[in-house]
Amino acid sequence: MSDTNKHIVLYDDACPMCTFQMKCLSWLDWQAKLNLIPLSDPRAQKANPSLTREDLLEAIHVISTKGITYRGARAIRFIGFSLPLLFPLTLVLYLPFVILVAEVVYKCISQNRHLISRLLGCKEACSILPTKKSDTNQ
């Protein structure tokens, strides 16, 4: 699948927790539907020029193949529908008001992700899960 047929996932590669999550997504993305692009990559700003650097640092963003941009918990929900193992869990995010709660939780975690990474030792955990050999965009 070419990169133009993939959903673009923009993430903070300076955050160990975010990097670990992207490694997990790369293993779950059996059908190669996602193009994971770290914010340090010049392609990140070009993917959606209307997003500021601050926007990108505040939350994960997904730009669908149709050009729709999703942010935070809604981005996570969108990704979940693209990956078979996450699909059942993602259905929960469509229950009434669940996405609103998820957005509040996401914002709290996002604002404290560097502290959470240190507390959980995520930097070391990231080295446990190897990057897939087929990953050329990470």
Describe this structure in words.
The protein is of the alpha+beta class and 138 residues long. The chain has a single domain (3-128), classed as Glutaredoxin (3-Layer(aba) Sandwich), CATH 3.40.30. It has eight helices and four strands. Strands 2-1-3-4 form a four-stranded mixed β-sheet. Strand 1, helix 1 (16-28) and strand 2 form a beta-alpha-beta unit. Helix 1 (16-28) runs parallel beside helix 8 (122-128). The longest helix has 14 residues, at 98-111. The two termini are 16 Å apart. The mean pLDDT is 85.
Helices and strands in order, then pairings?
Elements: E1 7-11, H1 16-28, E2 34-38, H2 43-47, H3 53-58, E3 61-63, E4 69-71, H4 72-82, H5 87-92, H6 98-111, H7 113-120, H8 122-128
What are the key terms here?
Glutaredoxin; alpha+beta; 4-stranded mixed β-sheet; 138 residues
